[in-house]
C-alpha cells in the first residue's frame, strides 16, 4: 500500500446538483414560464414534480437527493418529506458546493443534473427552452469557481440544428462536456446520420459526451432490466441494474454501429454504471465478432475492444473491486471515479472510499483514477 503525497489531484466525475425548485420559473423565457418544471403539494400533503402541467414524479421527491436522510422514509409514497428535505448543503448553491469540495479534499468535480434526467417533451420549442434555462442556471452556479466546478450542457436531441447552436454557445462559455441520455431519439441510434452535424461539432471541440442513466415515469427507457418485477421493483435490483442496463448497451451499440469509425476522435464517458463491465463487454464483443462480423457492418479497427481503448472512458464506483483489472484490460488512462452525491444511493464518505479502494495500486495508477485521467480528459 503506497501513501499518496498531498499534491494529488482528486476529481469527482459524478457530482450532481439538485436544481433549485424554482429554477425553471426563474430562468425560462417569459412565454414559457407558465409551463415551467415545478413542485406542487397535492391534497394529501404529498409533494409532486410537474413538467408542462403533467406529473412526472408523483411522490418521493426527497429521494431525488436523499444522501442525508433515512432511505425508507424517503421512498415512502405517503411521506410528507419534500425535495428540499433531501437536499444537503452544496447541492443547489455553487459557493456551498466549493466548501463541500474543500471538506472532501476534492480538487474539482463534474457537475451533472438531477431533475434534468427526469423530464422530456415532445414540444421542441419547450424542450429547447428547458435546456437553455438549465444551462444558464448551471453557468451561474459555476461562477463560484469556474476552474473547480466543471459543467456540462443539456441539449434537446430531438432538434439537432438547435442542439448545435446551444452547444456552440455553451462551448464559448467554457462548458466541458455534453450530457447524453442513453436512448434512441425518434428512432435514430447514435450512429445515424441524423446526429452527424452535432457529433462533428463535439468531436471538433474535443469535449466528451457524458452518457448517464435517465428516468422516465411515462414510458420505459431502452435497457435490459426487463419485467422481473411489478411496480415498485426491488430497490437493490433497480439501483444495481438501472444505470448499467441503459449505459452498457448504448456504449456497445455505438461501437458496433460504427459511430467511432465515422468520428474517430469522439470521446464518450460512461457514468454511473461502474467500470467492471467494460472488460467483460470487450471480451464478449470480440468473441462474437469473430463469428458474425460478416453479417453486420465491418468495423475499421480489428476488434470491438479497440474502440473501448480509444473512444470510451468509464467512471468507477467508489467501492468497486474491479478497478485494477479495468486499468489493466481497458487502459490505464480510461478509468475515473464518481460519487453520485447527493443521490440516495451515494455515500457521504465517497472520497475516503475510493482512496482506500485504490490504495493497493501503484502510485501512478492511484493518481490516474483519483484525478489525473479526468484532468487530461477534460483538459483542466
Description:
- There is one protein chain.
- This protein has 13 helices and 11 strands.
- It has one domain (11-19, 88-377): TIM Barrel.
- The chain has helices at 23-27, 71-74, 94-104, 124-142, 160-172, 196-205, 235-256, 259-262, 277-292, 304-311, 323-329, 350-357, 363-377, and strands at residues 11-16, 38-41, 47-51, 54-57, 108-112, 149-153, 177-180, 209-212, 268-271, 312-316, 335-337.
- It has an 8-stranded parallel β-sheet. The protein has a 3-stranded antiparallel β-sheet with strand order 2-3-4.
- Helices cover 37% and strands 13% of the residues.
- 44% of the residues are buried.
Attribute tags:
380 residues; alpha/beta; TIM Barrel; eight-stranded parallel β-sheet; 11 strands; 13% strand; globular
What is the ordering of alpha helices and beta strands?
A: EHEEEHHEHEHEHEHHEHHEHEHH
Q: What would you give as the CATH superfamily?
A: Metal-dependent hydrolases
The N- and C-terminal alpha carbons lie at a distance of 28 Å
Overall mean pLDDT score? 95
Q: How many extended strands?
A: 11
- Structural class based on helices, strands and sheet pairing: alpha/beta
| CATH class type | Alpha Beta
Question: Quick one: biggest sheet?
Answer: 8 strands, parallel
**Gyration radius, in Å:** 20 Å
Assign the CATH architecture.
Alpha-Beta Barrel
Shape category? globular
Helix residue percentage? 25-40%
Q: Which sequence of strands runs across the widest sheet?
A: 1-5-6-7-8-9-10-11
Number of domains: 1
- Tell me the β content: 5-15%
CATH fold group:
TIM Barrel
Give the count of helical stretches: 13
Detail the poorly predicted runs.
Answer: none
